[in-house]
Amino acid sequence: RCFHFCKLPGRVMGIRLLRFTSVVIIVLLLVAGALTALLPTIKDDKLPNSRREPKTQSQSALDSFTLIMQTYNRTDLLLKLLNHYQAIPHLHKVIVVWNNIGEKTPEEMWNSLGPHPVPVVFKVQTVNRIRNRLQNFPDLETKAVLMMDDDTLVSAHDLAFAFSVWQQFPEHIVGFVPRKHISTPSGVYSYGSFELQNPGFGNGDQYSMVLIGAAFFHSGYLEDFQQQPEAVYALIDETQNCDDIAMNFLVAKHTGKPSGVFVKPVDIRNLEKDTNSGYSGMWHRAEHLLQRSYCVNKLVNIYDGMPLKYSNIMISQFGFPNYANHKNKM
Amino acid sequence: RCFHFCKLPGRVMGIRLLRFTSVVIIVLLLVAGALTALLPTIKDDKLPNSRREPKTQSQSALDSFTLIMQTYNRTDLLLKLLNHYQAIPHLHKVIVVWNNIGEKTPEEMWNSLGPHPVPVVFKVQTVNRIRNRLQNFPDLETKAVLMMDDDTLVSAHDLAFAFSVWQQFPEHIVGFVPRKHISTPSGVYSYGSFELQNPGFGNGDQYSMVLIGAAFFHSGYLEDFQQQPEAVYALIDETQNCDDIAMNFLVAKHTGKPSGVFVKPVDIRNLEKDTNSGYSGMWHRAEHLLQRSYCVNKLVNIYDGMPLKYSNIMISQFGFPNYANHKNKM
Asked: Which of A38, A141, A262, B17: CA 20 to 30 A from B25?
């Protein structure tokens, strides 16, 4: 026998109650949905489009870097440099981008002279293209990439320091070779180094690019590079140049800040003249620098604006090599 | 004559309708309130406990800084330095902390020699205490403070550059005088400069403090400083020293990172010997450095741990004064 609870309203009242309840529930769901859309999304510290790390990723992938070195017609220099770079602190792996089409890699010789401190992977290419080095290699396990030209030697001290700097500026290209663009009254940009006039923002010079042929950058940018407009690839392929300028455009667009952080190297050497091959590198071509100015202007068209920003920050290592290298006569 | 609309339910139905509507509204408000609490709070770029800026704050308060200079018994140097600092780019105002108790400030003379580029405020103190300069002055309108000792001249070029660096590292003390602490096997810390052994983290030296007697820092830290344990004030008052070490502890605790960023000065001068007063500054006291080691250990006790962190980043200005100051023989 039920008393109060059973004193249900009439059937008509029951239907009205049901209807009101449904309306209430629907309205609540709509409001909740609308407000939920305003909740903050979980911040991911990776770059957009970067692959999510597996939870089992080892510590080493966070505290070490992968050297990517593209090589063409200078295998003697390559091997000399591999002996140097294989032992750099915090190096995880070396990826050699083998642009010597049809030629065997030195992998056999490499193995016969083992053991080695780190694994070296030879990526055989099918076409000799400068942008081969900017592929998103599946062999990459680290967040950081160190990209080096196959004729450049940077001391372990410089690299260890620059890597620690990159860890503090992971969204920037942290490297040893600064360059800049300048505006001209005609609106046409020109590319150069410090021999060009200063951009005119206060005292001193500024740089707006750090070249990737001797620099650390986040591996996520290789992934981003695969998503660029076709015209970028066409430009790089046409000139066999400017992949580094394109990367600086990409990074500057991504961060809204200067793309690079310049670390002043203590010991950086160009081994070009030491090669037996007689091959002397793309930058000796007559049109090399003109091409780079051309690329800057083309990229501004492609990206519909100039994303590069200037910086005048120059980083050196406190107390090294000279423990009193910051001393003031106060 | 109304037809459908007037066919109101009975009085009882009307009350039920009203009741349901009220319930719906109340539930919706509760849900909305709950979800709104989950919405992201507007990110304030000020430090916690910093006062909220009035909406009418001018652009200048963001792009300029306030010079705070404490002075005792060196009014000749003060006036010389005021002539220099009053014209530094991006200076908003000068606050002179007048520790000459009972003595008239040079305000009359200052005014008679006007006009001046910026306002100067003389804050007359009642007790000659070193931590007077760390008050949260209501005259402060800028986010940035430049704190200078009254015997230190830093060139306008250095200051303009360091200010631009501070704007990129606003939570750090950006300045010209690096110092460090070192651990010893006994667990007792010692304080010093680069003549002390390197802390032993890789190559070269490290610094863990940047002294505030020639540095930029966020004005919010002055507010934070008012919230420190009483023992900190007692320590500073007892030693008439270490206010800068205490500030570095505060900043390091706040950020969890190295407190300072060292900018290598091109032109920094100590004018001590130039004073007519014969007064030569606290750091000449025999016990000065021993006091500072003592302060480091006391502060570790007070804060229950060592928050200072090491850095080896040394920042210089690219292409200034020498436009080729980063040139490599590659």
From this structure: A38
